[in-house]
């Protein structure tokens, strides 16, 4: 090795390594590379001559207390002590098979910056039990003969394929692996007892990185476990696998034993046909015994939550080595205690009769579940349901807007002004949690998609996202499934964001963490509604009001909000119009009938939508037109939620919305604050729109484009009835709606947004004076 700054640190955890440790170190120091590397051994209390062996090589030695050892924890500690760009990980009983091992292992990361980690191939030690050798051969042949890259494809299909093939995707063995240290800084090993490597493999893939398999980076690594030891090890692997991954499938012992015996039959036949093997009968018996032990151990470990605590401890090899300190959650819990607690709680809440009735109801439900999912899966679900619900770990005061409610007190050292490329901006978007059908989120993702088409780079950070999927790639797939495909990664906001040219707050909840961030020189407020009006005068109203004084640049939906932000809050603001996607929203022919149909967008928990006003107005319309059919979308409503019968559609996708709009004679969509997307989309489908007559809607719509009704039950019902009974008036209104939306284009609207963001970025970095129009608006 050259005495230059090393590129790679080879990390070897050690405890009583014996002769294989010397062989391992000798092979590691014999590597032929075009880069310098170093070796770090972490000894956790060896009682043999392991430390002397390590000191006989030019390796660094880190000694730790055996009580502090953990597979993930200790490797994290070792990587912290490794200043190199890459880290190679092997174990004391894994011996590099040739002098190209390290070079081959690091190559995929040197060739591709998106590769976060690599794993290599294992082959058996000399004298290995044949079935172990056959298993290694089958396992690694599954990954291919050439370098293979693993990455979750963006979108729902990519995530579904990952979910269906998780064991294949996530496999990583740090008996023979390497990782990029810059990725490890962001995604360290979890502090777990087993499977720290496969958990890390899953974590980096789910964060959007690539993992590679290097088939020519080979180590010799195998175990000649006895059938009993094999069973105990399988038990521990299965219980930790159940704890960490909790797969839905819970295979039965008979099925597992059948599969194992089938494999044993093939392996024994191969053994008997191999002229190089000796003592075939005893080896065959050990092979079959190991396979039976593997099946039995895995089956029991997969169901460890159903077993008595004493049995778990007696079977577990891990418990024998490490005791109770790191037992999987639930192994030390008492089933009897949980049953008693559940019974007492039910008695206090329901009484004896109610408790008996509830028990019968649940028993019937569990019986039906067992018929569908099997007895073991049902028993596991019952066992978990008996555990007390842990108290919430987060109070309302832990939400991001409250965590950052106080202005930053620590001044940040001024940095050299960031130079931005206005044609390739880097933009961090901070958004609230999202669900299917959110119009505000649709506009955000539509804007991001358009900016990406223009060559800009976007990232998305979600605040208060503890109830959402934990995996970033899953979040991105939900964006694709529920909204639009975007290239931007989607992260949980857990720490400071990556550097950018602009950081964009998209609601008052996100404005506080954006104010606290130092990731970008320009902070922008993407304002789609006047959120102060969502609340009565009180704390939340004040919190929202304060965000309009944070000094952010403003980008608003519509000119009414732009004017309000400028004149009332002194904000430098630009605006863009809400538009319509004509490829989605158009009149779908053949859906109209003689029956009168009314569509209403109703969200009872969204005050600005005027739920009670619309409901009472529809009741009056129904009195006048008893045969009229009322269609409701926007939320799932119980039949008793309205004073009139209705057809509930819940939350619809784009195509279903188009069909409902196209078949209805009148559409009702109210917003007491800023205008929204739906009126444009209804008008584009030939459905005349009734809106509320307030300041914001008068400013948003051209005269006559939609029907503006007085904000009263009588006024709203009168305008709906007039459209239903006066066909000439209805046709004129349909024509006026078409005229209004005909020239609305998201491409034009979002081009305005892109230009505004360029101006903000350039002004914040002093690369261009504030636009004259912007200065005028601030006066």
UniProtKB/TrEMBL annotation:
Domain WsaF C-terminal, residue spans: 596-720
UniProt-listed Gene3D superfamilies: 3.40.50.11090, Glycogen Phosphorylase B, Spore Coat Polysaccharide Biosynthesis Protein SpsA, Chain A
GO biological process entries: single-species biofilm formation
One Pfam family cited in the UniProt record for this chain: WsaF_C
Entries under InterPro entries matching the protein: Glyco_trans_2-like, Glycosyltransf_2, Nucleotide-diphossugar_trans, WsaF_C
Domain named Glycosyltransferase 2-like: residues: 9-122
SUPFAM superfamilies (UniProt xref): Nucleotide-diphospho-sugar transferases (SSF53448), UDP-Glycosyltransferase/glycogen phosphorylase (SSF53756)
Name the record gives this protein: Uncharacterized protein
